[in-house]
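Duplicate of #3305? Posting structure anyway:
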């Protein structure tokens, strides 16, 4: 049941200038991005395949870089993004002639219309490589493409963070938000009473608990128990209607076998919260 990849979000306030993505260098790399379905919509999940090719004259990259994937509005503000690390082969091992293709599941949030007469939102796609820890480090703009994002009024179900959740947090750049669970947490969603899709992406703290088990349940039924192979994880499930029961509101329960308290294991930490797993998105539709 587990595949790749969360939440009923409308990133209404994410309007960030893309100063960090200004190209600073050139590199002999070609990239393309394939969407399935080809027409992308807000309030949806999209299957995305990234294609990379190291062209003739490619010179080795001396460090492992991350991929930035930014979708900008007409004012060059970030609407949403899919920043990630290339799987399997880090950029320091890329060689001339090498090709890399891999799929990802992209969560596209609901976008606020600035013109209610518009059927499509003009969006600019930027793809490149950079070191997110070093703003003065290498930064390669690989792909720039104009897209159209269709309005999709039928968004996912609203998620209510009911029990066991800590307050919402943001990173310093205000590009990503999350909530920590405690040992267990419950989110409530409306029961569609038909086959549904559940997507969750999150992160465990491997330094704190190397083999932490995560358990996912919906409407009292076990979805999966797993130990994430790496800190970050994405899970995608197709849930049959008969597993959702007859209640109008159903529970999505996330629990861990080994919660931790940062102040007890991290030198200098004063964080006395009991933490389970860091959840970025829950998408249910």
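Output from current build:
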């Amino acid at each position: 049941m587990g595949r790749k990849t969360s939440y009923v979000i409308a990133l209404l306030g994410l309007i960030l200038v893309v100063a960090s993505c200004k190209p600073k260098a050139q590199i002999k790399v070609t990239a393309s991005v394939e969407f399935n379905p080809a027409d992308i919509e807000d309030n949806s999940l999209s299957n995305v395949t990234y294609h990379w090719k190291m062209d003739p004259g490619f010179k080795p990259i001396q460090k492992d870089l991350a991929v930035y994937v930014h979708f900008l509005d007409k004012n060059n503000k970030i609407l949403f993004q899919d920043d990630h690390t290339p799987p399997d082969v880090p950029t320091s091992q890329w060689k001339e002639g090498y090709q890399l293709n891999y799929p990802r599941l992209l969560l596209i949030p609901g976008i606020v219309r600035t013109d209610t007469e518009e059927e499509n939102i003009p969006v600019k796609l930027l793809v490149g490589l950079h070191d997110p820890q070093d703003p003065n480090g290498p930064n390669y703009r690989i792909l720039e493409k104009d897209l159209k994002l269709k309005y999709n009024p039928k968004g996912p179900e609203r998620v209510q963070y009911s029990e066991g959740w800590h307050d919402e947090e943001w990173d310093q750049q205000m590009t990503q938000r999350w909530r920590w669970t405690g040992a267990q947490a419950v989110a409530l969603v409306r029961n569609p009473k038909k086959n549904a899709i559940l997507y969750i992406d999150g992160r465990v703290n491997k330094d704190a608990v190397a083999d932490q088990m995560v358990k996912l349940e919906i409407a009292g039924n076990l979805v999966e128990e797993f130990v994430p192979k790496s800190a970050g994880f994405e899970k995608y499930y197709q849930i049959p209607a008969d597993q959702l029961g007859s209640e109008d509101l159903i529970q999505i329960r996330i629990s861990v076998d080994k919660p931790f308290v940062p102040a007890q294991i991290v030198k200098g930490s004063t964080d006395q919260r009991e933490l389970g797993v860091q959840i970025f998105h829950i998408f249910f539709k």
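Confirmed duplicate; merging threads. The first helix runs from residue 262 to 265. Residues 1-21 have pLDDT under 50 and may be disordered.
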